Amino acid sequence: MNNARKNEIKDNAFKVFALVCTSVGLLVLGLLLYNIISVGLTRINWDFITNLPSRRPGKAGIYTALLGMIWVVTLTLVISFPIGIGAGVYLEEYGAKNRFAKFIEINIANLAGVPSIIYGILGLELFGRLLSLGNSILAASLTLSLLVLPIVIVATREAVKSVPNSLREASIGLGATRWQTISRIVLPASFGSILTGLILAVSRAVGETAPLIVVGALVYVPFAPKSPLDQFTVLPIQIFNWTSRPQSGFVVNAAAAIIILLLFVFILNGIAVFLRNRHNRRVKY
């Protein structure tokens, strides 16, 4: 049996193994989702969404956690996206292509893999203590901004890099400045791919719990936050709190909150995908 035949057999065996693992994983995920939906769907109603936390499972709601999560995610996007896109554009279009730039590029990529708990410790020391923001929504948003910035920067650089150089050369050849070329040609052409970074960043920011716990997110908040300096909790922490309770009613509440959290993520991702596809249909090059 020649080497080519052996390699073909190995490739086929690996494909079968990958297919089996994928099928088993999808089956387990499907059973898990079915169990969560069947348990939690009966608990979802308007009172569950608008009620404050309670020691009684039947009266407990997710209003404070949901509002806190919206506050944190919104501020995180407002802070991280302009900085991330600006840094990505600068590194790709203006930055010098030398060893130091390569070093920066490698470290930005490595930061995307740093455990989130490290960002929580950094946020606690830098924003919570040094800037005296305490356990506020703003401190949590700044911490999550540090967490998602590498994702946004890498996605922006790859999106800008994918724009053909012929478009830049044509724009400059017609008399446009470098900034005019970037703002009117490069960014519009790459905006659809940049939104991919938004999808990844939002998905990670919504599901993070460890850095928020370190920064000081509360487990029980009997009031709704009204400003970025208020104390807060988020939906993942509320779900964790309910699953640790001995009463079976709180387990049902946790399942219902998981469904709401999944819907929140799907809606945000759906909006980003819709905007990306709509933009890609309008921009052709």
Automatic annotation (TrEMBL):
The chain crosses the membrane at residues 12-37, 62-91, 103-124, 136-160, 181-202, 250-275. Coiled coil: none annotated. One of its GO terms (molecular function) is phosphate transmembrane transporter activity. GO terms for biological process: phosphate ion transmembrane transport. It is a multi-pass membrane protein. It holds the Pfam family BPD_transp_1. GO terms for cellular component: plasma membrane. Residues 66-272 form the ABC transmembrane type-1 domain. It is found in: Cell membrane. Keywords: Cell membrane, Membrane, Transmembrane, Transmembrane helix, Transport. Belongs to the binding-protein-dependent transport system permease family. CysTW subfamily. This is Phosphate transport system permease protein PstA. It comes from Solitalea longa.
